[in-house]
Amino acid sequence: MERFRIDEHQELIYNNGRWVLHVDGTAKEDPPESLYKYFPLTEYSLDALEKGYFYLNNPKDFNDPFDCNYNLITENQRELRDWEYVPLPNDVSNKGITCFSTDGLNPLMWGHYTKSYNGFVVKINPKFHYNPSPKIISAKLLRVIYSDYPNSIAQSAPFANQYQLIIKLKDWEYENEWRLIIDKKEDNFCELFYDTSAIEEISLGYKMHHNFDDEHTKLRNRLDKIIQEKYFHVPLFSVGPHQTEFKLNKIKFKYGTVEDIFPNLKND
Prior knowledge:
By secondary structure, the chain is α+β, with helices and mostly antiparallel strands. The chain has two domains: about 1-30, no CATH class; about 30-75 and about 85-265, no CATH class. It has helices at about 45-50, 105-115, 160-165, 215-230, 260-265; strands at about 5, 10-15, 20-25, 25, 35-40, 55, 95-100, 120-125, 135-145, 145, 165-170, 175-185, 190-195, 200-205, 235-240, 250. The strands form five sheets. It has a five-stranded mixed beta sheet with strand order 5-8-14-15-16, covered by helices on one side. Strands 1-2-3-4 form a four-stranded antiparallel beta sheet, with no helix packed on it. It has a three-stranded antiparallel beta sheet with strand order 7-12-9, with no helix packed on it. The termini are far apart.
């Protein structure tokens, strides 16, 4: 049986055609029941929601410089001399990655990735279908593994190609992240279109309706139009602080009632 020790608690074991994470001897085979995609309120986010695609990032653009670090590959490790050019440690142009969380009510993620509750979160069925393309070599949905002291892996090891792309420091463990990793034939292939029937919910940050800046209002009204025209059948929620408890609360909007947010958007 093939296996690779990540650190003192975690190990990857090859079983029935796939690599399974084991933590202190217990297999973590549970697939995600739901995936959540966090978005700031920007033209790019609205374009992705309206047209139904996930943007595929090169890891060099991630906010964590240790993410997808090629120094996890043993052959890449070396000492730099004084004043030597330091390359980007995670420039992986032949891969495209889009990130999800299994937690749609995480305060840190709402704060970071929706620009302080001014954006939105989309709940997606993890069995969503993406449109086939000759530019795609393969696609895999993988669990991110968090470790402060991960072992490096030899380039020749069977799991090396994926290992570099799913190891993150434990500081990020709260994100409960899964990644769709695309091997692509063309570096500039960045938009993965998918069947939007997989969208199960849309949640709006509560501050979205308290910002009356002209550009924000323009974007918010466009989101209103996209939801009404394309996602009118999808349950719509607002997420913000609970009124009596120290946690986030999710409230469902009901069309045609005082809880319906759209009249407020139109009256701005």
